[in-house]
Amino acid sequence: MDQPDRTEHPKQPQPLREEWPEVEKAEKLARGAALKWASGVFYRPENLEGLGQYRSRETQRNSSIQSRLKSTVQSYLEGVSAGLEQLRSAVQEVQSVCQELGAARWALLDCADRFQDLQQMRTLMAEHVQLASVVQVLPQLFSVHEVFSHTLQLLRGQHLLEAHVEIMMMEHLRDNILSQLHLRGLSSAQATVLSYFSGLQELNESLAKQLWGIVGSSLQLVQEDPVLFVTAVRIIEREEKIDDTLLLDATFLPPGRPKGWRQKFYHVLQETITGTHFHTTRMDAGLSRHLEALQRDIVSELRVVKDLMVQCVPAHYNILSVCTATYHQALASHLQDILREDLDKQALFHLLKWVLHVYHSSEMMGHPDLLPEVDVSSLGPLISPELVDQTERRYVASVLEWMPRTLNREFEEWFREKEPKTDHQGFFQSDLPTDVIEMLNSNIKVTSSITSSLQQKVYNMALEELEAFLGRSVEPLTPLPFLTDPYYVPYLLAWGLLQGKAHMLPGSRRAGAMGCCATLQMELLQEQHGAGHFMFFCASFQPLCVQLASRKWLSGSQLVNSMCEVIDKYAKDFSRVKKPVFTLLLTECEVLVANQYLRALMQKKMVCKSKEERGQFCDRLLQDATQLRELFCSLNLEAVFAVRELLCLKDTALLSLEVLGFITKYPDVSDEHISTLLDLRGDVSKEVRHMVLEMMAQHPQALPESYQPIFSTILVPAPELPFCLRKGKCA
Questions:
Q1: Helix (H) or strand (E) holding 438
Q2: Which of 440, 507, 511, 631 has the most crowded Cβ, counting Cβ within 10 A?
Q3: What span, in angstroms and rounded, lies between the C-alpha atoms of 76 and 88?
């Protein structure tokens, strides 16, 4: 049997499609697409003739593609070959560097001991440098005490710049040594150095003492010897620069730094200004002269600062603004101290005028020589508005302290059993009211030169004092003292200021009412509104008015006769005073009679039960009004007559029309007043009342400017509530 051939054949390389399956897939797709195209093109016999041409064209195309692929692959292969060559040379260079680094490492390990020797040499070199610097400053150290003595002599001779140069040199030497010791942490050595340079402290104190003395005399020196003042400023600026430099280097700050001499300059200058002028003990010659001296000195010194001192200091000192603010603040504090003292009215007047007028005027801070550089408007008021108000009140109280005593003495004389003085015409007279008004007017005119608020305070306090006096003067006018002191009211009339319970009307204190004696008198006369009321009350007039519109009044005329007798009695007393008080009293009596009469009607003391009684009521009203009008000759009782017409109307259906005319003539009448009058009639039904009130609601009335209120001052009593029993009907 033939044996099978076991000869091993060499392995064939795997086709490309086994390595890249995508190639096989792409080839299949390409073949399928080509077959589809060829079957479509050569499906017809007439197209088969061009098959040879197509085959040759495709052969050329494939050859072109293959050649381009070969060239592309060839270029990639050449690049890869070049890269591999570069990598090979780089590996060789890295290996060479590694060998050299290894050799250098071994060389460094061999030199480690030699480096330690170099460190010791470096330390010796640093010590040698320090020793050399110490040897260099040894001559200066040895001459320190000699320099101290020389510097002290320079200071005594006022060679300040040279002395300051040597002081700076010594400080620089000391600070360098201390800085080195500080870096090495040798604190014990620092104490030794400080003790060695202890004389510097004495020199600095001596220099500072002379500098502050110069600054304290700066206003005089800039006029006589400005060089000395400029020298002091230059030294201060040197020290400020040294302070700024050392503060920037925060590693070491020498002792005594920062000196802050510029701030000390401002402080000394301010203390000098304050101590020179603003002491209360300088007021021995009086406050007025003291303020005049302050005004003169401040203006003079600010001129010196503006014209001379500004040229001697750097611009950033703002010396003029600093001095202006210092004078302003010191003066404000000084004035507050003065106001704490017990000042008389003259001193308070001068102080207020000086603060509010003189200080800002062209005579002082607004002086032409100081403008426009000096401006105190931004510094605030010299004294606060509250303190101005308090001072004004103190002045007013001091000015008017005479008034209560004078009025009290006058009041005590009113109880004498002697008739007051009369003039040649027989009128009561008293000189005191005129004297008081003239003195008040004089004070008001004087205060007008200060402020309107002070003028108003004097005016108001004067009126308040007169109010208080008039209030006290009418307190004894109760019925018994009034009858037992027959000359009390004549004294009131002689004074010409008869006043009931004194009260201030809001519109009576007008700024335009201040300025002359006559105006103030008229103002006081306006405050006498209601004076006649109290007189008639004291004369038993009020009890008579209470009986009006009652059944007793309806039965006879004796009540009105009694009222006329009372009025006539006091009219005789009123005739003993001159106008305008006499006219005012008569007018008040007329107003009182009309008001009290209408007020009595509104009390609803009776209700007319029949037509005859209502007619009797109206007749009595007509008789009373006619009798009172004849007594006064000009008494305005039109309101009483109008009420009578309303009550006498026979046809109640016309009440709406009658009431409309009534409220048109008297627009201050209210629903309550009309309801009360309708109740007095006794014959008005609920329907008519409702119709009248509805008509009033539909025709509201406005008060004309010249209208004198009548009914608005008369209150209608509240209606009595019906009394109800439990579980029963109301009566």
A1: helix 431-447
A2: 440
A3: 18
For residue 516, what are its two tokens?
């002359």
As a whole number of angstroms, the distance between CA 674 and CA 688 comes to 12
Tell me the per-residue pLDDT of 631-661, one tens digit each, with 9 for 90 and over: 776 556 788 888 888 888 888 888 888 899 9
- DSSP assignment string, 384-400: -HHHHHHHHHHHHHHHT
Contact at 8 Å (CB) between 595 and 638? no
Q: pLDDT tens across 418-456, in order?
A: 777 777 777 776 666 667 777 777 777 777 778 888 878
- Round to whole Å and give the CA distance between 40 and 36: 6
- Note the helical H segments in 280-318: 287-304, 310-312
From residue 659, give the alpha-carbon distance in Å to each of 165, 568, 595, 667, 687. 109, 35, 20, 11, 15
Look up the pTM and report it: 0.55
On the question of a cis peptide bond just before residue 404, with omega within 30 degrees of 0, the verdict is no
| Assigned token pair, 421 | 């003085």
Confidence tier at 200 by pLDDT (50, 70, 90): confident
Q: Is 458 left (phi over 0), alpha (psi -120 to 50) or beta?
A: alpha
Tokens of 625: 């009004």
Give the span between the Cα atoms of 464 and 458, in whole angstroms. 10
- d(CA 422, CA 427) in angstroms, rounded, equals 5
C-alpha torsion sign, points 337, 341, 345, 347: negative
* CA distances for 618 relative to 35, 423, 569, 597, 603, angstroms: 144, 47, 28, 14, 16
211 token code pair: 């500098």
Cis (ω within 30 of 0) for the bond into 486? no
Evaluate the omega torsion of the peptide bond into residue 372 and state whether it is cis, within 30 degrees of 0: yes
CA distances, 106 to each of 100, 103, 113 (Å)? 10, 5, 13
| Nearest Cα residue to 605 out of 544, 565, 656, 553 | 553
Closest CA to 525 of 490, 596, 577: 577
Phi, psi of 73 (to 5 degrees): -65, -35
Distances (CA, A) of 351 to 347, 357, 367, 387: 6, 10, 20, 12
* Closest C-alpha among 223, 216, 224 to residue 309: 223
Phi and psi angles of residue 383, each rounded to the nearest 5 degrees, phi first: -130, 150
Residues 6+ apart with CB under 8 A from 334: 277, 278, 279, 280
pLDDT at 689 over 60: yes
DSSP for 168-237, please give it. HHHHHHHHHHHHHHHHHT-HHHHHHHHHHTTHHHHHHHHHHHHHHHHHHTHHHHHHH-HHHHHHHHHHHH
For residue 571, the one-letter residue type is A
d(CA 248, CA 703): 83
CA distance 193 to 134: 13
List the one residue out of 584, 649, 589 whose CA is nearest residue 617.
Answer: 649
Q: What distance, in Å, lies between the first and last C-alpha atoms of the chain?
A: 161
Residues in the chain: 731
CA–CA gap between residue 439 and residue 258 (Å, rounded): 66
pLDDT band at 194 (very low <50, low <70, confident <90, very high): confident
For 564-570, the CB contacts below 8 A with 24+ separation are: 564/627, 564/628, 564/631, 566/536, 566/539, 566/540, 566/541, 567/536, 567/541, 567/593, 567/631, 567/632, 568/631, 569/539, 570/535, 570/536, 570/539
Predicted local confidence at residue 582, as pLDDT:
75
Average pLDDT over residues 319-326: 92
User: Pseudo-torsion of CA 66, 70, 71, 76, nearest 10°?
Assistant: 140
The token pair at 303 is 């001129």
Alpha-carbon gap, residue 3 to 30, rounded angstroms: 46
